[in-house]
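Handout, section 3.2

Students often ask what a structure token actually looks like in practice. Rather than define it abstractly, here is a full record for Sodium/solute symporter. The first block is the sequence as you would receive it.
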Amino acid sequence: MEYNLGIVDVTVLVVYFIFIVWFGIKASKKGSDSTSDYFLAGRNMTWPIIGFSLFAASISSTTLIGKSGDAYSTGIAVFNYDLISVLVMVFFAMFFLPFYIKSGIFTIPEFLEKRFDKRSRYYFSFITLMGSTFLDAAGALYAASLLMKLVFPSMSIMSLSVIFALIVAAYTIPGGLSAAIKVDLIQGILLLGGTFILTFLAMSNGGLDYLKSLLLDGDYMMKLIRPLDDASVPWLGMIVGIPILGFYFWGNNQVLVQRVLTAKSIDHGRKGILLVGFLTVSLIFIIIFPAVIGKHLFPGLPKNDMVYPKLVIELMPTGLLGLMLAAMVAALTSTLSALLNSVATLFTMDFYTKMKKHTSQKEQVYVGKIVSVIVLVLAVLWVPFVSKFDSLLKYYQEMLTYIAPPVVAVFFLGVFWKRINKHGAFWGLIGGAFAAVVTVVAKVAFNFELLGDIHFLLKVPFYFVFSAVIIIVVSLLSKPDNKTEIEELIWTKKIYQEESKALIGVPFYKNFRVWSVILILFCFLVLYIYQ
């Protein structure tokens, strides 16, 4: 599928990218030599900015290209990843976010050191660095390049990857997270507007009648709850697999959590997460439904991942086509800008400052910029390997299945059980990694599935339980950590009671608990309608 853009759409695309680079550089803080300013935007962001920035950063290549491709072939079941994750967001905002913000951390691995020790911090930081570079950054570059190759067929994927890398570098590296977040605010609004227009056009071209007929006929394409043997999302996987992956994505992922750490207060951080929760629910209308309609409008596409670009190219009128393509690329470049800053923060704060003591804040910022350049180069070089996977979604899911469970087990047990100690946490992470390596080696070298031929979502709880057992056993067999050093990092009923007192007299429309309940009910309403 190729398409030659008209002069109007090309102009819109070029003008948009010039504007974004200009605005990003202009938005760079003058005080960006400060680590707090460069890596965490001065910790002064309000909830609307946090919410839209999170939304733009979370609409990655797996969402825009991968999930729409899955919806094209199997229906709306892929939306379960988002729906269940919204419930996880509420849980994270309620219990984990206050510890992150109050502890004053720059990175999520840094929290592990405060709760446990340096071993867990360095292990998780290294895993995150590798995953962000070769899983997320390379995937985002590949998706953006794949999209633009449709309209610039004479250019290679590698050439386009280099161009996008330079565009993102132009505003992210000089300005840090402050510039990236402000650009994300614009791109998040543009993405919402563009996708809603596309949804309207898809519905107007027979899509609404098609969806109605599927729903009335009870077609599996419009069902969220699927049989246990379903190849897309089995119902048991919804319960035992997605919550673990969702918590890793929203609660342990440096790329997204770093944006929440910019909040001026816990309340702003929580409301920012709730805002992105409501925006995430909208994905069923602006990403999933149009992809299902795409099966009706464009049956038999050679590659499922091409359905959303196909919808954009075929349905959007001149002018709006260029703007929508800009919105799609904006989503992917937002993800990349978020990755750059998170990786720069991780390396600088978790490794460089430990290897070289007494570094100035200016030097730390400089190192962060150098790391960003290196990550971009590595991501561009890794793009050809990403293209070898059948789909971006499979590439992402395969990797996340092995990375997420041990980390989630450590964070979950560490916050809710004070008896879990540093030895249990470290060996739980190592044990989980060992189990994953053994599984992969058995599959690749001997074509043998250790866990049997089951859905990957059903493998996730195995790694989680395996790691959790190691964490608990090792902790109970070794000396407890010093209670006075960790008591402020353990959740207790007292924390809930103190928050309840603080909320007395707060108007209901400003109470994050009220909005949390509304968001949860909204999710269950969607699940009920499309069960």
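Discussion prompt for tutorial groups: The chain is about 75% helix and 0% strand. How would you have guessed this from the sequence alone?
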